[in-house]
Design goal:
201 residues; alpha/beta; Beta Polymerase, domain 2; 6-stranded mixed β-sheet; 8 strands
């Protein structure tokens, strides 16, 4: 008996070939993203008692505790965490830009309790042109992070001792980490004046 060659028979049609082909492996299941869950603690209870509705939210996301506070109370909440709750270290301050929102700038302070090794993120929203209260009276180390947020996002800090750019040149136009600041919107005039070229792209 002649040996039958492997593969599709000579008279196979595209339809029968497709039907006999091995099934493609199923796509791997997409893991569900973690969702915030309410953060319940005596610390949160104390802050709610002190600040009322200015504590907008207290939750845990992926094991990280955070507070959402009204901008008008942000400095006072930070002071309470530092002076009464043991969060004596400011480890970071940054911002996020949501250009379509009514209050497009979210400031995020990360404070650390060295006794318990716990961190809290404190978040507050600010409108365009609205000033945040400087935390340099609480932590001297807030100086440069506030300058960076001012430089790259344009948020000003009332009471800062020396609020000026820290990464970009002083005469640079715009704030490069805003989401509506595309790389092609760089300060062409500064590039031409200081580098002698038409574009830095």
């Amino acid at each position: 008996m002649p040996e039958v060659p492997e593969g599709n028979p000579p008279n196979a049609t595209p339809e029968t070939a497709a039907a006999s082909a091995p099934a493609a492996p199923a796509a791997p299941a997409v893991a569900a993203k973690p969702a915030p869950v309410p953060w319940q603690s005596t610390l949160v209870d104390g802050l709610r008692a002190a600040f009322g509705e200015n504590i907008r939210d207290a939750a845990t996301y992926a094991g990280q505790n955070f507070l959402v506070v009204d901008a008008s109370a942000a400095h006072a909440v930070l002071a309470q965490l530092k002076d009464s709750c043991g969060y004596t270290s400011l480890t970071d301050l940054t911002a996020v830009h949501y250009p379509k929102d009514e209050r497009p700038f979210e400031l995020v302070w990360i404070v650390y309790n060295m006794q318990t090794s716990e961190r809290i993120r404190v978040k507050a929203r600010y409108a365009e042109g609205e000033m945040a209260q400087s935390a340099t009276d609480l932590w001297l180390g807030a100086n440069w992070p506030e300058r960076e947020v001012f430089d790259l996002f344009g948020v000003r800090f009332a009471g800062h001792p020396d609020l000026r750019r820290i990464l970009m040149p002083e005469d640079w136009t715009g704030h490069p980490l805003r989401k509506d600041y595309a790389p092609t919107l760089q300060d062409q005039a500064w590039v031409q004046k200081n580098l002698g070229i038409e574009s830095g792209q």
